[in-house]
Specification:
By secondary structure, this protein is α/β, with parallel strands linked by helices. It contains 3 helices and 8 strands.
């Protein structure tokens, strides 16, 4: 846990595979709190942690970055469980197939098909403030 001025960052140890890290090692899920927003970045989360561990990440989450390329990370149905647990306003899929990769990952489209509100932002970043969050869950796809 680290605090910088008004920003709080907490890390939670998880695994990059479903064998307690024996295949790909450990992963850290980060929770960032700043300017009235809470963001969780799941990193290369490769296995759904026990429910009690997920609850330790905190209750309210505004923005959730979640890996959806499967193969080396969570299956999309497990990524969806994390989303359902936190019910964030914005979900940003990451770690999915792009033709520039030299290794295999699944495409983002099967994940996107699970949601009705999907926005392709057409850029690699975005800005949001607590008073400009969507009123209900939206998936924001960044241009990579």
């Amino acid at each position: 846990e680290y605090k910088f001025d008004s920003m709080m960052i907490k890390g939670f140890s998880t695994f990059h595979d479903d064998r307690q890290g024996k295949k790909r090692g450990k992963n850290t899920v980060f929770r960032l709190e700043a300017d009235g927003l809470v963001l969780i970045h799941c990193g290369d989360l490769g296995a759904l942690p026990p429910e009690d561990d997920i609850k330790r990440w905190g209750e309210e989450v505004d923005i959730l970055f979640v890996p959806v390329g499967e193969i080396f990370t969570l299956p999309i149905h497990e990524a969806k469980k994390i989303i359902d647990t936190f019910q964030p306003k914005i979900v940003v899929p990451m770690h999915y197939f792009d033709e520039r990769l030299s290794f295999e990952l699944h495409k983002v489209e099967p994940f996107l098909a699970l949601f009705s509100q999907v926005q392709h932002l057409g850029k690699a970043d975005f800005e949001v403030e607590s008073d400009t969050l969507p009123s209900s869950l939206e998936v924001w796809v960044l241009q990579i």
